[in-house]
Amino acid sequence: MNKGDGETSYAENSRVQSKIISIAKPVTEEAIIQLLSTNSAESMGIADLGCSSGPNTLSVISEIIDVIYSKCCHLGRPPPELRISLNDLYNNDFNGIFGSLPAFYKKMKEEKGPGFGACFISGVPGSFYGRLFPSKSLHFVYSSSSLHWLSQPTKRVGLILGVSVQFQKDFSLFLKSRSEEVVLGGRMVLLLMGRRSMDPTTEESCDHWELLALALMSMVSEGLIPEEKVDTFNVPYYAPCAEEVKLEIQKDGSFIVDRLQVFEIDGDGGGDTLSSGQLVAKTIRAVAESMLESHFGSDIMDDLFRRYAKMVDNHLSKTAITTYISLVVSIIRR
Fold first, then answer.
1. Given a cut of 70, is residue 2 above it in pLDDT?
2. Which Pfam families does the UniProt record give (predicted)?
3. Using CA atoms, how far apart are residues 326 and 303, in angstroms rounded to an integer?
4. Number of separate domains in the chain
5. pLDDT at 157 (0 to 100)
6. Average pLDDT value over all residues in the chain
7. Distance in angstroms (rounded) separating the CA atoms of residues 139 and 40
8. End-to-end Cα distance, the chain
9. Contact by Cβ (8 Å): 87, 50
């Protein structure tokens, strides 16, 4: 992810992720309400895994707090002490998040009044493909637009099969780790990019990354980057279908699937100053530029994403408006 709040930062180019959070909001609210109906813990552990940075991070936490306070008011009981953990990789812009906490706490106190109780927000850096928290310390786990990122890239030989197997390994480890950290009856709501078809080679799975590969190859053809550089670059990304997600949950056996839904998210349709292709390019650049820079260097980034934007525009001129497929799964610790 691109740090900060500049033109190419994730904070300024995460509208698609915001749409995903918004469309899944009813599922998130339902999970929290059901949790509070069956659990009256005085101290509640909450974790946002893959929290990233920017406006989406604390807006999600704010919405979770709102639901908790509203439900507790309805039940006629004081809200629990909230232990909120924000997790992402070590290079995430945690300082940016922490810098916005004073204003966040002030806003919460103004909105909730004297009823705003103890709320402790902390950062927990590290990979969620492994243990992050003490045993049985979490009541609600949330993750948005993160689990489609794999723990490592796969070799190009048998690439589709390789990324599918890697996803199975990663998601299995994610579930195993959370099963030790989440209390019985605890909830998890997971939002990730996916696909409708069981066939991982369908266009809905590959469009954006295939077009990025074409943009890179156009630079190879002009001698701007060596072909072997492209051959050795793999994006650690996999968009599973609902059946794959459900199968891994069943194989793990620690969670019950409460809801598993597939949503179609409209992409940005362009505007007065930017085309649809330019908006898609800004979105992809915000999440993938750091990986590309480490492999190809920073000098080609502007040229690469200009080419990519044109290719996306050309692609969209021949197809329907760009959409993203998102999976939303709500599960219960059994």
1. no
2. Methyltransf_7 (PF03492)
3. 30
4. 1
5. 44
6. 90
7. 11
8. 34
9. yes
Contacts of 95 (CB under 8 A, 6+ apart): none
Q: Is residue 274 part of a domain?
A: no
- SS3 track for 277-328: HHHHHHHHHHHHHHHHHHHHCCCCHHHHHHHHHHHHHHHHHHCCCCEEEEEE
Q: Average pLDDT in the 189-207 region? A: 81
**CA–CA–CA angle 329, 246, 62 (5° rounding):** 15
Range 275-287 average pLDDT: 88
Do the domain assignments include residue 246? Answer: yes
Domain that holds residue 256: 15-196+235-267+323-333
Are 327 and 247 a contacting pair, CB within 8 Å? no
> Residue 317 contacts by C-beta under 8 Å, 6 or more apart in sequence?
none
- Separation of alpha carbons 226 and 41, rounded Å: 58
Q: Confidence band (pLDDT; 50, 70, 90) for 234?
A: confident
206 within a domain of the structure (yes/no)? no
Residue 71 lies in a domain: yes
| CATH classification of the domain holding 242 | 3.40.50.150
Pairing of strands 43-49, 138-144: parallel
